[in-house]
Every structure is written in structure tokens, then in C-alpha cells.
Amino acid sequence: MAYIMVDIESDGPIPGDYSMISFGAVLVNEALDQTFYGKLKPISEKFIPEALAVSGHSREEVLTFDEPARVMAQFKEWIERVCTDRPLFISDNNGFDWMFICWYFHHFLGRNPFGHSSQNLGSLYKGIAKDTFQTFKHLRQTAHTHHPVDDARGNAQALLRMKKEYGLKIKF
Asked: Under the GO molecular function aspect, what terms does this record hold (predicted)?
């Protein structure tokens, strides 16, 4: 199985009413050299200025981004190119990131190449640490900048460290 670490930025709390502005993905392997970055034009007139500000983009700027259907098709093609096996979605906050990626794939392409499942990096670490109050974020090497490729890379680095330093049984 091929783990794809994903991070998204949005202009609101849910897909459909609000828009995914950008997302990044990293194929989890030792090199972390296969990445995808997509910037998507809003699908709704609604947005929350504070949520959009996290992405570092203005409303005027995001209105010039690519059509979501095109970006999602490119992401699907990238997944097919870098994965020799079944792709597995994993993210820091899969309840949020998965919701947008899944919705956008189904809405624009009619199917999600990840299937119906996702994994949560934070929950995985809590299990390793045997403590629901622990966080994995100290395992990141790349700074958390809210650029989705940086954030996905940092989370992938944390997953690699869980394997190396904590003996997590996982194949890449």
C-alpha cells in the first residue's frame, strides 16, 4: 500500500458551502520526493475571511486559481503515477482534510481513488505513545507554514520517525 500524506487549506469549515483553496500531497517514502500541489478556484461565494487568511491568499488571488475539476483530475493522475499499489490517505487532521478531498473527488470526478477510508496521524501517534493527550508535532522536521506541501512533508517526516524511532510496523 502507498501512503499519501495530505494537507488542505480552505476558506471555511465544510466543503460545498465553502471551498478548498489549496492542498498538498507527499508520497511517503524515505526520499519524500514525490509531491503534488493544487490551487483551486472557489466553488462558492461564501468564505470566512479568517479561514482564508490562514492560507496566506487573498480572495482576489484565489479567484484566479485553477478550475477544481482540472486540479482533481491532475491529482488523480499523479496518484496513479506515483502509486504502484493501493493509495492510502493519511493526514494530521483527517476529519477535516479527508472531508474536503473526498467531497471534491466525488463531486468533480465521480469517484475517490482513495476509496472510503482515511487514517489520522495524530491518533496513530497517541496509540504509539499510549496517551491520548500526546501530540506527534515534535517529530516534524519541516516547519508548519500552512503551505500544504510543507505541512504534508512535515507530517510525512513525523510518520517516518514513528517507524524508525518507535518501531511502527508500516510498509512504504
From this structure: nucleic acid binding
pLDDT in tens, 6-49: 999 999 999 999 999 999 999 999 999 999 999 999 999 999 99
Assign domain 2-166 to its CATH architecture: 2-Layer Sandwich (3.30)
Q: Measured between alpha carbons, how far is 90 from 102 in angstroms, rounded to an integer?
A: 12
Active site residue 144: no
Phi, psi of 135 (to 5 degrees): -130, 150
Residue entry with cell 518507535: 166
Of residues 107, 116, 144, 146, which has the active-site annotation? 146
pLDDT tens figures, 127-168: 999 999 999 999 999 999 999 999 999 999 999 999 999 999
* Full-model pTM: 0.96
